Amino acid sequence: MNIVVLSGSPRKGANTDTMVEAFAETAREDGNTVEVVRVASKKISGCLGCQYCFTHEGTCVQKDDMANVIESLKGADMVVFASPIYWFDITAQEKAAIDRLYAFGATGFPFTKT
Ligand SMILES: Cc1cc2nc3c(=O)[nH]c(=O)nc-3n(C[C@H](O)[C@H](O)[C@H](O)COP(=O)(O)O)c2cc1C
Q1: With the C-alpha atoms ordered 79, 7, 74, 76, is the resulting torsion angle positive or negative?
Q2: Of 7, 17, 54, 104, whose CB has the highest number of CB atoms within 10 Å?
Q3: Is residue 36 part of a domain?
Q4: pLDDT at position 91, please?
Q5: Beta strand spans in the chain (E)
């Protein structure tokens, strides 16, 4: 299985990274391919909700780092969301990336497992 992890901690080498590395190591040992995408290190703006993507085959009107994340996810069977808790919720960086998955709304989500 091809697994993509969207990791939302801005702190490199901290607790979330440790958990992601442990997951990735075990998943690879089990024969899976794992790509870890540090969304908190990328420039990903919040979704505008404009639905441009609905009429442009899933392409977002905003030109930022999310385009590459979307390309990675197109080959994914499973996506894993990893985030610290910030004020009882996931980080703003992780939420921005999740909101931008709206671009798959018109074309369909490639992954079947979360
Ligand atoms: C802005 C901010 C808000 C936080 N809010 C919570 C919280 O609501 N509940 C909690 O248990 N920990 C909270 N924490 C602590 C982090 O979840 C914790 O330190 C976590 O291990 C950070 O992940 P990291 O090591 O990958 O950076 C908060 C930390 C920060 C910086």
Answers
A1: negative
A2: 7
A3: yes
A4: 98
A5: 2-7, 33-38, 78-82
Strands ordered across the beta sheet of 33-38: 33-38, 2-7, 78-82
pLDDT tens-digit map of 40-73? 999 999 999 999 999 999 999 999 999 999 999 9
The CATH number of residue 9's host domain is 3.40.50.360
**pTM higher than the cut 0.90:** yes
pLDDT for 3-14, tens place per residue? 999 999 999 999
Q: How far, in Å, is the centroid of ligand 1 from the Cα of 30?
A: 30
Q: Within a domain: residue 111?
A: no
Q: Whose CA is nearest to atom 20 of ligand 1?
A: 84
Residue 41, in any domain of the structure: yes
β partners of residue 7: 38, 82
Residue 112 lies in a domain: no
Q: Domain range spanning residue 10? A: 2-104
Q: Structural domain tally of the chain?
A: 1
